[in-house]
Amino acid sequence: MIRLAVFVGLITAIVALSHLYLYRRLVVQPGLPPRARRVVAAGLALLAVSTPTSLLLGRALAPSARALFFVGYGWIGVAFLLMLALAVSDLVRLGARVWEGAPSPERRRFFGRVSALTASGVAGTLGAWGVVEALTPVVRRVQVSLKRLSPAMSGTRVVQLTDIHVGPLIQAGFVERIVAATNALEPDLVVITGDLVDGSVARLAPELAALGRLRARHGVYFVTGNHEYFSGVDAWVEHLRGLGIVVLRNERVRVGGEDGFELAGVDDYRSRTHDVAAALRGREPDREVVLLAHQPKSVHEAARHGVGLQISGHTHGGQIFPWGLLVALDQPVVQGLARFGETQVWVSRGTGTWGPPMRVGAPPEISEITLVAG
After folding, report:
1. Does 219 lie in the same domain as 123?
2. What is the enclosing helix (H) or strand (E) of 10?
3. Do 37 and 94 have their domain in common?
């Protein structure tokens, strides 16, 4: 209860301060006339309330309330882009003041109006483009060489879906499209590396029915992400198994028979049950291991245990630039392929979105990872 109160208080403070900044930059500095000032101020107040409301009720209301959530979540993204654009204009103004000295009141008001209009146009355009971008995941292909991979398994194609976040905004239609796109690739293996849902089985089971139609020669596998633990992880594990999906919880399976490799999966890094050692206990040292782990930071432990490749998500590639710079403070890799000693890690930008239904500078993706011996 204390943690929830702290979280709510922090979100409230951030929302209040950010909207006070927007009020000053969009209303006060441009010197809007009284009627326009009241209209803009009321609009900002309503949008400010929509942000915490969407965050708090996103898991409680039915998916049919999608339009309401689109406004609340969408404003989070637009407001961020707007504040970023205004901050850039503030830096330009500061530079001009240092260079030319303090401007007259008329010039300050003129600059305030021009910068407010320009920033609003830029934020609105980027936000609209980001919404369109988020709806169309691209297939991103990468080839990974693994020293201990049997030549018989060279060329194995692993298709990764991750961070779909089925919930208030992402629903059955999106799931059906990515299932069709995945099956069209005719993969050898499909892996879903967590953050599949934002809500309970009771609310969202119909939205994920299409996952039961995923097809791959060596099967479909899943590991939990942090959002599953907010949504009833045990119920979701049981439900996904009912759809024919193999859930790996600190355990591993053999893929490809006697000449195959070990596929291991661990619970989310932040869970109390995350245990790479348990997943790899008793494995054959000369056989290649591919580890599914939602968060990239599991790679440090994976490297200590001699894992050949870790496949992760979680970061969304930042989702909206420049959030990736902040993500890099928490995770060792934000997106793409990286190496830690003898262990490689592939981090997908994610297939869906969380929060703002948009992506700017971090397109959504379905990853196709080809494993080659070498």
Report:
1. no
2. helix 2-23
3. yes
State residue 14's pLDDT score. Answer: 86
pLDDT tens column, 236-291: 999 999 999 999 999 999 999 999 999 999 999 999 999 999 999 999 999 999 99
Task: Examine the domain organization and report whether 287 and 356 are in the same domain.
Answer: yes
Q: What is the CATH number of the domain that holds 368?
A: 3.60.21.10
Number of CB atoms found within 10 A of residue 147's CB: 9
Domain with 146, as residue range(s), is 138-373
Question: What is the structure's pLDDT at 93?
Answer: 77
Q: What are the Cα distances from residue 101, in Å, to 76, 104, 108, 224, 355?
A: 36, 10, 12, 57, 42
**pLDDT-flagged residues of the chain (< 50):** none
Instruction: Look at residues 28, 24, 23, 29 and name the one whose alpha carbon lies nearest to residue 42.
Output: 23
Strands ordered across the beta sheet of 309-312: 251-255, 261-265, 289-292, 309-312, 343-347, 336-340
> How many domains does the structure of the chain reveal?
2
Among 134, 168, 185, give the residue marking a domain's end: 134
Contact status, residue 248 vs residue 265, Cβ threshold 8 Å: yes
245 within 8 A of 208, measured Cβ to Cβ: no
Find out whether the peptide bond into 322 is cis, omega within 30 degrees of 0. yes
Same domain, 100 and 191: no
pLDDT at 110: 84
pLDDT recorded at residue 96? 67
What is the spatial distance between Cα 196 and Cα 161, in angstroms, rounded to a whole number? Answer: 9
Domain end call among 134, 154, 175 = 134
In terms of domains, do 286 and 155 share one?
A: yes
Kindly state the DSSP code that residue 270 receives in the 8-state scheme: T
Residue with tokens 């070498």: 374
Q: What pLDDT is attached to residue 191?
A: 98
Residue 7 is predicted with a pLDDT of 67
Same domain, 88 and 234: no
Give the contacts of 209 (CB within 8 A, at least 6 positions apart).
Answer: 172, 243
Phi and psi based region of residue 82 (left: phi greater than 0; alpha: psi -120 to 50; beta: remaining): alpha
